[in-house]
Amino acid sequence: MRVYLIRHGETVHNVAQAWAGTTDSALTNHGMLQIESLAQTFASKSIHFDSVFASDLSRARITAEGICRPQPPKKDGGLVTPILTSDLRERDFGSLEGVHWQSPSTNASASPGRLSSITSAEVIEKETTVSMRQRSLSFLHSHFLPLLFDDPSAKRKVAIVAHGIILRVLWNCLVELFDPISISLMPGIAAREGGPAALLSPSWSNTGFMELSIRMKQSPSSSPLQRHLTSHEVRVAPGAITDTEGPPSGSLAGDILLQGWSMKIIAVDNKEHLVGLRRTRGGIGSASYDNRQKRIDQFFK
Question: Which residues make up the binding site for substrate (predicted)?
Fold first, then answer.
C-alpha cells in the first residue's frame, strides 16, 4: 500500500499567522491554486487513489475534493470521493483560535474578525495531546487498518488529507504500530541527528505530502495484530507534541504491533508540485477564495 499524508491548502489563518484549530478557516486564492497543482500532478503521474480520507473541516474537505476531481473512475465505475471524519480535525485551540501563534499571551493581535483581547471568563483550554492521540488511534483502527488487512497483497493507494498538527500526531501513532527496525528511509531523508527512521519528526507545508510504502514482509504465523503495550509501557516518539497535564502522551492501553510488516518513507513534505507556482500580486493571492465568483468544479477544469 502507498499512503499519502497531505496537508490542506493555504488558508487566511495561515497568511495571518494565527491558530485556526477547529475554526473553518477559508482557503485563499493561492491555496486553491496549490490544490489544483497537486491534483494535476497526481493525475499526470498516474497516482490513482483507491481511498481518500479527510478531515471534515472545509479546508481539508475542499483539498480532498480537488484531489479527487481529476481522478479516473474506480474499477466498479464509481467516482473517488473523500470519506470525511472528525477524527482528523486539527487540534482545538480553545480561546487561542484566531490568535497570532508567535505570541505567548491571549492578548496578542488576532486575525481579522477576531477580538484581540480575551477575558479570563472566556478562556477555553486547548485540546490535550491525549485527546488527539485517541482520535488518531480511532482513525487508524476504524478506517486505516481494516483497509490494510482487507487484502495485504493489493497495491492500493490511499490519501489522508488533514492538518499540520494532527498529521504529526497521526504519524507518531502509526510509527508505534511497527517494530522500529522495520521502518526505513529513502536515501536523502534523515531522522533527527542521524538516528533511526522511527525517530523521524516530519512537518508539512500547505499541500505538502508525506509518501509511505507499507507492505507485508512475511505471513504472520497467527493474527497480523498482536497486543503490544500496556498503559504503563508507553512509547513516545521524540518530537511529539506533549502536554504538562495528564498521563504521558495518552497512549491507549493495549496498542498493537504490526508483525511481519514494513514501512518505508519515500518522501517528506514533498512540494515538487509547487515549483514555479507564483502568488497573484496585489493581495489577491492571499485573499479569501470566494466560491461565489467561481464554482469549485469550474476552478479545477
Answer: 7-14, 59
To the question of whether residue 11 is assigned a binding role by annotation, the answer is yes
Question: Is 30 in the active site?
Answer: no
Element housing 4 (H / E): strand 2-7
Domain that residue 168 falls in: 2-92+127-299
Annotated catalytic residue within 65, 90, 97, 211: 90
Residue 222's CATH number: 3.40.50.1240
Cell of 260: 511481519
- Does the residue 111 lie in any domain? no
Residue 207, annotated as binding a ligand: no
Reply yes or no on whether 90 is catalytic: yes
4, 24, 42, 112, 262 from 161: Cα distances, Å: 8, 15, 14, 26, 22
7 labeled part of a ligand binding site:
yes
| Structural domain count of the chain | 1
- pTM, whole model, 2 decimals? 0.83
Asked if pLDDT for residue 163 goes beyond 50, the answer is: yes
**Catalytic position from the list 8, 30, 143, 163:** 8
